[in-house]
Design goal:
By secondary structure, this protein is mainly α. The chain is built from seven helices and two strands. The protein has a two-stranded antiparallel ribbon. Strand 1 (129-133) and strand 2 form a beta hairpin. Helix 1 packs across helix 5 (94-120), helix 4 crosses helix 5 (94-120) and helix 5 packs antiparallel against helix 6. The radius of gyration is 18 Å and the shape is elongated. The model is unreliable at 166-176 (pLDDT under 50).
Length: 176
């Protein structure tokens, strides 16, 4: 009985994260159109190849000139608050909140990339450069980093937190 309840709950969380990833990708699609990034193009083409790593000033300055930086920064903060608030509202214990946040973050981010790729053609490959966040400065890097490193790490953290919960958790039965 408890296992079915957990499966149903994680199913709803997965749907929440998938839907939120689609919403995020849609907003990014609108921003890309607004600032003139061609369908399927990466950010390098928009910035004339001047895209650097974490803290890149060229991206922040370009977004500031187009009057998007403040709005986009607030949207990103709101995104994290929505993910965190939902997990904290649903979880009754700190471990459960960590589990829900990390799991939701990973599924949200993956669905964001999949939907964005399906709709815009970007990213075309895992080596494409993306803008991860703008808080506290522009974080820029290859798509493979969140897909291969961050998302599995978030799932790993959520599994670790889940192990501290009920020993009958379906994830433990799967051997994870």
């Amino acid at each position: 009985m408890a296992r079915c309840k957990w499966l149903r709950r994680i199913g709803w969380w997965t749907l929440y994260a998938l839907a939120f990833g689609v919403i995020e990708a849609t907003v990014v699609l609108y921003i890309r159109k607004l600032v003139g990034i061609e369908q399927g193009s990466g950010y390098e083409s928009y910035l004339g190849g001047s895209l650097a790593g974490y803290g890149t000033g060229s991206l922040s300055e370009t977004l500031r000139r187009t009057e998007i930086l403040r709005v986009e920064t607030l949207r990103e903060a709101a995104t994290i608050l929505l993910l965190l608030g939902a997990a904290c509202g649903a979880g009754s214990k700190p471990r459960e909140r960590i589990t829900l946040f990390c799991y939701t973050f990973a599924v949200w981010d993956l669905s964001y990339y999949l939907y964005l790729a399906a709709v815009t053609g970007f990213p075309r490959c895992l080596t494409a450069t993306d803008v991860y966040f703008l808080i506290p400065a522009a974080w820029v890097g290859p798509v493979w980093f969140p897909v291969i490193i961050v998302m599995p790490a978030m799932i790993g953290i959520s599994l670790w937190a889940a192990r501290g919960g009920k020993p009958n958790c379906f994830l433990l039965r799967l051997g994870l």
